[in-house]
Design a protein that fits this description.
Number of helices: 18
Radius of gyration: 32 Å
Helix content: 40-55%
Strand order of the largest sheet: 1-7-6-2-3
C-alpha cells in the first residue's frame, strides 16, 4: 500500500501541492522527467498553464520542462504500446457497426426501435460499461440478475462476438498491468504523480496500483472536500490503486448560513455586490469569491451590468457563444465557402459583415461587390479566376488605348479621371483575386 503524499482540498491548495512535489523532484535536475497522471485532459491543461505561470513558484525550482500530463488510460496506452499488436483498438464507428449488426440479426425487445440512433447509442454505452466486468462478474449478473440485466449481458456478448480482432480499454489496461517488466517500461516516465484521483475502472485501478509501486518513485496527491459522501468515490479509486485512506481532519464543508429576502433579481444582485465589496474590504481575495445563480436568465445579464457599473472585476461563463460574435460569424462564414462553391454573394457577405483585411489593407466590400458583379462572377474558384482575369484584360486594353492616345490634359479632365478609374479598377481586380485565392488556401 502507498501512503498519499498530500491530502488536500481542491483548488489552490491542490495546485500548490503539485507545484511543491514537482519542485522537490526537480532538485535532482531541471530536466528530471516527471509524469503527472490526471483525471482528464482538461485537468492536465489547467494544471500545465497554472504551473507554467509565475503564480506557483516553489523554492528555487519552477517550470514544467520535461513534465508530462496524461490520463490513466493514456499512460496505459504508452506502457502497452508493444502489446496487443494482433488486435486493433475499438473505435466508435467500429462499435456502432457491431451494434447495428446485432440489432439487424436479433433485435429482441428492441425490434420497434432497432433503427433508432438512440438505441444504438444506448447499447454502445452498455457495451463500454460491461467491458470493464470480468467473465465471472458477467456470469453472476446472468445467473442472479433481473430480466433486464440478463438481456444486457446477452447483448453485450452478442456485440463482443462481432468484435473479434479488436481490444477494449479493459484489455489494454489489463495487458499493461500484467507486464512483467513494468518497472523498466516506466523508467522513461520518471517520477509518477497521481494528481487528484477520480473514479477509475477496476482494470485501470489495478494498472495504477502496479505503476505506482513499480515506478522508480511516485507520489499521490488526493483532493477531498471534507464531505464523506462526496469523497467516497475518490477513496474507492484509491483503494483500487492500493493507496491508503488518510483523513486529515478536514473542517466541515462550508454551507449557507444567511438568507436575504429581496423583491426581485436586480435587488438580489445589488445585495451580492455589497457582500462582495464587504468581503474584499475584510481582506478576502477576489479570486476566492464565487457567485452562483439558479438560471442564466435573468441573472447573467444583471450580474454583468451591475458588476460593470460597480467597477467590480469578475470572470465567469458567458451565455453568448463565440459563434454569435463578429469574429465567430466571420470564421464560420469563411469555413462554409468551400461547401457553398465560393458563391459570389457568400464571399461579398463575408467581407461586408466584418472589418476584414487583405494583407495589411482593409478590403473594399462595395467596390469589390460592383467589380465581381460587373465581371459576371457566379461561383467556383475557376469562375472567379477566369472572369476576373478577363475583366483585367479588358480594363488593361482600355487603359493602354488612353495612354497611347497621348492626351496631355489637366488632372481634372474627364479623360484623366477615366484613366485613374481604370488604374484603380486594375488594382482592385488584382487585390480581390489575391484575397479569394488566399482564402481558398
Amino acid at each position: 500500500m502507498i501512503e498519499p503524499s498530500h491530502v488536500v482540498g481542491y483548488g489552490r491548495e491542490a495546485s500548490e501541492a503539485l507545484a511543491s512535489t514537482i519542485a522537490q523532484v526537480k532538485q535532482a535536475g531541471p530536466l528530471a522527467p516527471i509524469t503527472v497522471v490526471v483525471s482528464s485532459n482538461f485537468v492536465g491543461l489547467s494544471a500545465r498553464r497554472l504551473l507554467g505561470s509565475a503564480d506557483l513558484q516553489t523554492g528555487d525550482r519552477s517550470g514544467i520542462a520535461n513534465v508530462s500530463f496524461v490520463t490513466p488510460f493514456q499512460l496505459a496506452e504508452l506502457v502497452a504500446a508493444d502489446l496487443l499488436l494482433d488486435t486493433k483498438p475499438i473505435t466508435n464507428p467500429v462499435l456502432g457497426a457491431a451494434v447495428r449488426r446485432v440489432l439487424a440479426d436479433d433485435p429482441g425487445p428492441y425490434a420497434p426501435v432497432a433503427r433508432h440512433e438512440a438505441t444504438e447509442a444506448a447499447l454502445a454505452s452498455l457495451f463500454a460499461e460491461l467491458a470493464n466486468v470480468d467473465e465471472q462478474g458477467l456470469e453472476s449478473i446472468a445467473d442472479e440478475g433481473s430480466t433486464a440485466a440478463i438481456l444486457a449481458v446477452r447483448f453485450y456478448r452478442a456485440i463482443a462476438r462481432h468484435l473479434d480482432g479488436f481490444h477494449t480499454e479493459h484489455d489494454l489496461a489489463t495487458a499493461a498491468a500484467d507486464r512483467s517488466d513494468l518497472g523498466r517500461r516506466l523508467e522513461p516516465f520518471g517520477h509518477i504523480v497521481w494528481y487528484l484521483p477520480a473514479p477509475v475502472t477496476p482494470a485501470l485501478g489495478r494498472f495504477l496500483d502496479r505503476a505506482l509501486h513499480d515506478a522508480a518513485s511516485s507520489s499521490v496527491i488526493v483532493g477531498i472536500t471534507g464531505d464523506d459522501d462526496a469523497d467516497e468515490p475518490v477513496w474507492r479509486s484509491c483503494d483500487l490503486a492500493g493507496v491508503v485512506r488518510r483523513q486529515p481532519g478536514f473542517p466541515a464543508p462550508i454551507t449557507g448560513d444567511h438568507i436575504v429576502s429581496v423583491t426581485d433579481a436586480a435587488e438580489e444582485v445589488r445585495v451580492v455586490c455589497s457582500r462582495v465589496f464587504a468581503l474584499a474590504a475584510a481582506g478576502m481575495s477576489l479570486d476566492r469569491i464565487g457567485v452562483f445563480y439558479p438560471s442564466a436568465d435573468p441573472y447573467v445579464r444583471i450580474i454583468e451590468q451591475q458588476f460593470a457599473a460597480a467597477e467590480l472585476i469578475s470572470n465567469g461563463p458567458d451565455r453568448r457563444r463565440v459563434a454569435d460574435s463578429v469574429a465567430g460569424r466571420t470564421l464560420l462564414g469563411a469555413l462554409s465557402l468551400p461547401a457553398a462553391r465560393w458563391r459570389r454573394d457568400r464571399v461579398i457577405a463575408l467581407i461586408s459583415g466584418a472589418p476584414v483585411r487583405s494583407g495589411n489593407d482593409p478590403v473594399r466590400p462595395t467596390t469589390w461587390d460592383s467589380l465581381s458583379r460587373e465581371s459576371g462572377v457566379v461561383r467556383d474558384l475557376a469562375d472567379w479566376r477566369s472572369k476576373l482575369e478577363h475583366d483585367r484584360s479588358v480594363t488593361q486594353t482600355l487603359l493602354d488605348a488612353i495612354i497611347e492616345s497621348g492626351d496631355e490634359l489637366p488632372e481634372a479632365d474627364a479623360s484623366s479621371r477615366r484613366r485613374q478609374r481604370l488604374v484603380d479598377r486594375l488594382a482592385d481586380n488584382r487585390q480581390l483575386l489575391k484575397f479569394v485565392e488566399r482564402l481558398a488556401e
